[in-house]
Amino acid sequence: MTAPPATPPASSAASSPVVTLDRVTRTFGDVVALDDVSLDLHAGQLVGMLGPNGAGKSTLLSLIAGLRKPTSGTVRLMGRDPRDPVARIGLGTTPQETGLPATLRVREVIDFVAGHFPDPMPTAEVMDMFGLGDLARRQTGSLSGGQKRRLAVALSIVGRPRVVLLDEPTTGLDVDARRVLWDAVQAYHAGGAAIVVTSHYLEEIEALAQRVVVVDGGRILADDDLASVLSRVGSRTVRFRLADAAAIADAGVLALLEHAEREGDRWTVVTPEADDLVRSLVAADVPFTGLDVRGATLEEAFVAMTSPAAPNPATTTNGRSAR
Ligand SMILES: Nc1ncnc2c1ncn2[C@@H]1O[C@H](COP(=O)(O)OP(=O)(O)OP(=O)(O)O)[C@@H](O)[C@H]1O
């Protein structure tokens, strides 16, 4: 879709972080939900936050939103305590679960929320961004789950916030609805807002986030640009076509392979030494065709980081092993 970028107010101090967590710990009884976490978020960043269930993601977002206080450490939103209304006016958030007044129409709900902000986006513009135009007169109680979710996320940006927190905004949406929602989020981000999104759809985070924060057990395991996070997984997947299986062994490359499988003449091998493998195959005159070398996916990097005891891919695939 072609929603115009919606511009949040310019930052008065563009270089200072809009969100800061400094050595933040949050416990619930015996449970340490966040353990000594430090994090800065700057204007214009679109951050994907990943972590297994119970990692501490929602707790972290709730501290930034001022819904909870840290047990120790400091949280700042636009340089202030997140519970300060002056800071909160610049925040938009969609938690995992939201309630909508069932008898109000879509347009009325957006107007109602817009009324709480000094310079809200026009309701028609918000509805257009989120593909809600045709539903303007529908009572929210009659919306589908996906339509409700789009409305809930739309409400988070009505007030032109500088910081937007979206906790699993696309869970349960079909592919088209996810695309509409991400187009809208990106259009809003183009105006300079800082956005944090949690999602269990890693390919979605890989496609859209510039910075990736991986949380597990209440700690930050990785906080880097996407390429750096992906580079933490050293292995590459190499695909090619080759009818003569014996040529692989003859080339003396078996020791380079973490895993190999073959379907007919189609080979897929995983190796930490892709360059050496390809050089060796060429040097041995192995008559392969259709060479394709790929880096790790975010999902592979995530599994490698969050499950130290994750099984070797060689033991989890059903293909034929070359070893
Ligand atoms: N209000 C609470 N009372 C007690 N324990 C809590 C509370 N809120 C969170 N926890 C615990 O803190 C830990 C972190 O939970 P949190 O909801 O932040 O994880 P999450 O990463 O958002 O998980 P998910 O992906 O399942 O939403 C979990 O062990 C959870 O059970």
UniProtKB/TrEMBL annotation:
CDD domains: ABC_DR_subfamily_A (cd03230). GO terms for cellular component: plasma membrane. Coiled coil: none annotated. PANTHER family: ABC TRANSPORTER ATP-BINDING PROTEIN. InterPro entries: AAA+_ATPase, ABC_transporter-like_ATP-bd, ABC_transporter-like_CS, ABC_transporter_ATP-binding, P-loop_NTPase. Pfam families: ABC_tran. The lineage of its organism: Bacteria, Bacillati, Actinomycetota, Actinomycetes, Micrococcales. Residues 19-242 form the ABC transporter domain. One of its GO terms (molecular function) is ATP hydrolysis activity. It is a peripheral membrane protein. It is found in: Cell membrane. The keyword ATP-binding applies. The keyword Transmembrane helix does not apply. This is ABC-2 type transport system ATP-binding protein. Keywords: Antibiotic resistance, ATP-binding, Nucleotide-binding, Transport. GO terms for biological process: response to antibiotic.
